[in-house]
UniProtKB/TrEMBL annotation, chains A, B:
<feature type="domain" description="Transketolase-like pyrimidine-binding">
    <location>
        <begin position="351"/>
        <end position="522"/>
    </location>
</feature>
<dbReference type="InterPro" id="IPR029061">
    <property type="entry name" value="THDP-binding"/>
</dbReference>
<protein>
    <submittedName>
        <fullName>Transketolase</fullName>
    </submittedName>
</protein>
<dbReference type="InterPro" id="IPR005474">
    <property type="entry name" value="Transketolase_N"/>
</dbReference>
<keyword id="KW-0460">Magnesium</keyword>
<dbReference type="InterPro" id="IPR005475">
    <property type="entry name" value="Transketolase-like_Pyr-bd"/>
</dbReference>
<dbReference type="InterPro" id="IPR009014">
    <property type="entry name" value="Transketo_C/PFOR_II"/>
</dbReference>
<dbReference type="InterPro" id="IPR055152">
    <property type="entry name" value="Transketolase-like_C_2"/>
</dbReference>
<keyword id="KW-0786">Thiamine pyrophosphate</keyword>
<comment type="similarity">
    <text>Belongs to the transketolase family.</text>
</comment>
<dbReference type="InterPro" id="IPR033247">
    <property type="entry name" value="Transketolase_fam"/>
</dbReference>
<keyword id="KW-0479">Metal-binding</keyword>
<dbReference type="Pfam" id="PF00456">
    <property type="entry name" value="Transketolase_N"/>
</dbReference>
<keyword id="KW-0808">Transferase</keyword>
<dbReference type="Pfam" id="PF02779">
    <property type="entry name" value="Transket_pyr"/>
</dbReference>
<dbReference type="Pfam" id="PF22613">
    <property type="entry name" value="Transketolase_C_1"/>
</dbReference>
Length: 658, 658
């Protein structure tokens, strides 16, 4: 136990934060000042961590879900000894190039376990981390994985829908090593919490099966005792820590201004006076810094013991652990996918997109034992969970999470699992419901997390469920997300290829887009992974130089093939280009792209979706056959006729551009 | 009170539903069969409605939030006498052209008050309708507006985050005329509710201040009594109706299969046997149909009395009521916007985008007394709510809703307000948070609702908050939504023009996109609304035929103007095209578009966002200066330099394409 009064340690957090915010002229002082005592109690007494080995696989995870209070996290990390968060970074808080960015950006090598800022995401990430922990604890044994996940939580996180989804599900799954520390300061950016909420928040947690305590958020001993109790309870825990926002600045603390108002020199001076902190800006006295560094070394014995246990593992187990930590797939994971592709190429059967999707999830789940999946209340409709057992409060060995009707929580929990490491999260739902989890898709892409989504029911091809369930703008809106790999296979061969690409992509999320309706076979061979180039000539023009090029994705590729047959029969040499992934195509060299696109030929794009983005490949005189508005409720084939997405329409469009 | 046993009326609902679902071979029988008794109690005893006047402004609103059970709604509407829902429509359930679509599609002329299907939306729409009612009740008086909003709710709606947001806020706002009827059937598509939730749902509502009752959902008398009690309580009410899913089909009722499994002939036969319903498919016996039609006439005296009160209104009040019902703006509403534009054109001041945005919201709020707005916990940062009072549980005259940190609920409640009519909802938040409400943007566009969003902080120009708060893909993803009008003004003149366009657009939503940083003046005149053409030549090339065209939107237009000056100085006749709205530009004729775009000239697009979609205007040899990945945390001007979005970069790009 450090010999320095922990209140001084908390004040060191306060003044580093305050000085940094004052210096740059902006930031959110409310959280760093208000929650300094809470987090000091955690870091100095309970958090299992080792700043000298930030990637220690069995460390406790700490998430600052109210990410706007980022200086709190940077101060804690710097003080406790993370070398990559330097005093200079703190002095350059919010300056270009500083690691101390406006909001915490995912970088576990310096203790930032996830990107936070968009509210509610962090606590749902934390729930995902706790799932990963429980799963790996069961799989690798408690000697290898046995840690807690802590999240500092603000009112915003608890008002956002995704927060509610995570609370309900974490309670239901009885994630006992998850603990939320609620910075209950009664204040939001707009003013007093009661402007917008009168919820009994402790009751909110209790009704979902959480263990709840309420303590003085400035009493470090009481906080520490509550954390101890939380650790001993088998339920997830919420500690409501009543705090004064911006605590420490006379005249500002406890007011709305403390949330995000500017901190001026006279504020920091008054705080120094009030708290008896007689040190210049950015100076932490040696004894206090020493106590913090001692706190950072507190878990060394546990770290050493863990290393010893890992060192004593049988070679095979050790290799497995290393593989999981590094996020590598098991040897030969591609084999079954490739065999599937070869079989599909040989058989050339038309197959429901959804059946192919389900078959492939089965295959990859079998090949990758750390794959953890789920399809929010659509396991039947998406043909998912045919072989995986459920991950439940009583069975941590299952690999299928019943997320309930909570797509947003699924996305955020997948991000948490991927950030934790050791599991390979897959999420399955209808393409239209990707909008419910869209903030999480963006964060996965921004963090570069290898999460994989299967979005099925991808067009009007779903038929009678009508326009609410028929995506038209989703391919475009997914393609707009930087670092999101969008893959829309045309048939079972491309589907297997796309899965292999998605699992190979370790630097960002992948979206696999599947039709519900039958996909006719368009590929009779399955040698090289043609989808890996993003777009390729599926059928070259015959009988002369190419005069027309039809570009298509997914279910519309078979339609393009039929249109080509018509045009060829009319003596128009026509090529079909299948474009499963625009992002991959953009990575090819100019010569390849020009050759595939057939610049100078009559070009027509076909996709049962909006045109946005297609012009890049069609040139200024190209045509497009697709959707310009929402779908309708009716039989699938009737809908394609109704919206004029037919081989005839494509051939006609090409013809007039010759 | 009808003389027929109401249980027979409920069975009429069951058999119409079952027969329709059997006929088409798909649909969701669980809800129509399980909730037939609940809704019969409502329609036959409590709902204030008049099928002969579906648009009666003071009717109760009924929302089937669990929209997948759509046959329930169609059966209720047909039986109670809505002429536009014919028996033929029901026989053609889910067929192309039938009004009985897979999910209910908004059409108040036949009793469909909102589009439902994506779960949770309907109950949040209902909360918005209740806000509209409370606001208009205060504004027009209880003689004119005094009705209830009822929503049938499934488990999915209560698990989704948006549902939680709506529950919290409706309780906080004490929307006493809102009543949720929870079809508590313990079953979801995946199986028993306990697979994914153990929440104490009545407690969930109570902690947010709701009145809660629990009744047998098949006991029509008990249900009716609970509804009576709900009506007398000043809090919003939730009636937990314990039901058996798919009630009526032996062997299927109460099972997972009842949710959405196929209904076969042997099922309907067994149900007829079990319920003693000896009528052929689609036949409702005269006495039962008579009782239903009588139920549909139950509110005639109230309807007549209401018409008499409206008829007795002073002429001016009557005109005001008609205006509100028809969704027309007040006379002269554009005047202040036009004066603002003229003043801005004369003064040519650089002004913070966010200041201009706030000024304009003030202006339109003053001009349009039925405008109801809100900016989820960002009233300060978005310079919103400077003059509007708050709409609260004790003051229904306020026009600013403190939504809390609940963007998704805001979007859905705005849709509910617009569907209700009589209010003009505006929602304000950062552009990045539009993702949190994205499902509602799509539904607003699909329903064609005149809702207006102000999305501020629109690029890396926000500076130090970093990438989580810097939109890069959002303009593209909004432009992808059919029927969403996206408007990104370049300066204060265009901003006023865009607001006028948005308020004129009554057939769909509009998104007004604002920079946070200062916008330099680019327009020195404000005569005709140039933004209304979507794109226009802001500065034509000088000194010869145009050789280069720079196309830009928003904050990048001023940058384009600077690049043009450089190129002109070098002797390159260069035009700048401002493109505040792509959608409006697409509506112009080909000649205008070609003239503006300068086909054949060296073209460069500039937008601090991703390229997706831009190629349509740049041709195959055009250039683009913008973002290809996420932003960074730093000072705004440094970021533009860092990401090479500068006049120099634009000029250089144009130069190499000459």
């Amino acid at each position: 136990m450090p010999s320095v009064d922990p209140r001084l340690m908390a004040n060191a957090v306060r003044f580093l934060s305050m000085d940094a915010i004052e210096r740059v002229g902006e930031g959110h002082p409310g959280t760093p000042l208000g929650a300094a005592d809470i987090t000091t109690a955690l870091f100095a007494r309970h958090l299992k961590f080792n700043p000298a080995d930030p990637l220690w696989f069995d460390r406790d995870r700490f998430v600052e879900s109210n990410g706007h209070g980022s200086m709190l996290l940077y101060a804690l990390l710097h003080l406790s000894g993370y070398e990559k968060i330097t005093l200079d970074d703190i002095k350059r808080f919010r300056e270009l190039g500083s690691r101390c960015e406006g909001h915490p950006e995912y970088d576990p090598t310096c203790g930032i376990e996830t990107t936070t800022g968009p509210l509610g995401q962090g606590i749902a990430n934390a729930a995902g981390m706790a799932v990963a922990e429980a799963f790996l604890n069961r799989r690798l044994g408690p000697g290898i994985v046995d840690h807690r996940t802590w999240a500092l939580v603000g009112d915003g996180c608890l008002q956002e829908g995704v927060g509610h989804e995570a609370i309900s599900l974490a309670g239901h799954l009885r994630l006992g090593k998850l603990c939320f520390l609620w910075d209950d300061n009664l204040m939001t950016d707009d003013g007093a919490i009661e402007l917008a909420s009168a919820d009994d928040m402790p009751a909110r947690f209790r009704l979902s099966g959480w263990h709840v305590q309420e303590v003085d958020g400035h009493d470090i001993e009481a906080l520490s005792a509550a954390m101890l109790l939380a650790k001993s309870d088998p339920r997830p825990s919420m500690i409501a820590c009543r705090t004064v926002i911006g605590r420490g600045i006379p005249g500002v603390e406890g007011t709305r201004a403390a949330h995000s108002a500017r901190v001026l020199r006279n504020h920091t001076e008054a705080a120094r006076e009030a708290l008896g902190w007689n040190h210049p800006a950015f100076v932490v006295p040696d004894d206090v810094l020493g106590a913090w560094r001692e706190a950072g070394r507190r878990s060394l014995p546990e770290h050493e013991a863990w290393q010893a246990r890992v060192g004593a593992l049988p070679a095979e187990k050790r290799r497995e652990l290393d593989r999981l930590r590094e996020g590598r797939m098991p040897e030969g994971w591609q084999d079954s996918l490739r065999a599937f592709a070869r079989r599909a190429a040989a058989e050339r059967r038309a197959e429901y997109g959804i059946k192919t999707s389900g078959d492939l999830v089965d295959l990859v789940a079998e090949a990758i034992p750390e794959l953890v999946s789920g399809a929010p209340d659509l396991e039947g409709a998406t043909q998912h969970k045919r072989r995986m057992g459920a991950f439940t409060s009583s069975d941590r060995g299952g690999r299928y999470v019943h997320y309930g009707i909570r797509e947003h929580a699924m996305g955020a929990m997948m991000n948490g699992m991927a950030a934790h490491g050791g599991v390979a999260p897959v999420g399955v739902t209808y393409l239209v419901f990707s909008d419910y989890m869209r903030p999480t898709l963006r964060l996965a892409a921004m963090m570069g997390l290898p999460v994989r989504f299967v979005f099925s029911h991808d067009s009007i091809g779903i038929g009678r469920n009508g326009p609410t369930h028929q995506p038209v703008e989703y391919l475009a809106s997914l393609r707009a997300i930087p670092n999101m790999l969008v893959l829309r296979p045309a048939d079972a061969v491309e589907a297997a290829e796309c899965w292999e690409i998605a699992l190979t992509n370790r630097t960002g999320p992948s979206s696999l887009i599947f039709a519900r309706q039958p996909l006719e076979s368009v590929r009779g061979e399955a040698g090289a992974n043609l989808s890996a180039r993003g777009a390729y000539v599926l059928a070259e023009a015959e009988g002369g130089a190419r005069r027309a090029t039809i570009l298509a994705t997914g279910s519309e590729v078979a339609l393009a093939v039929k249109a080509r047959a018509t045009l060829q029969a009319e003596g128009v040499p026509t090529a079909v280009v299948s474009m499963p992934s625009w992002e991959l195509f953009e990575r090819q060299d100019r010569a390849y792209r020009d050759q595939v696109l057939g610049r100078g030929t009559a070009r027509v794009g076909v996709e049962a979706a909006v045109r946005l983005g297609w012009d890049r490949y069609l040139g200024e005189d190209g045509g497009f056959v697709g959707m310009s508005g929402y779908g309708a409720s009716g039989a699938e084939q009737e809908l394609f006729e109704h919206f004029c997405i037919t081989p005839e329409a494509v051939a006609a469009d090409a013809r007039k551009r010759l």
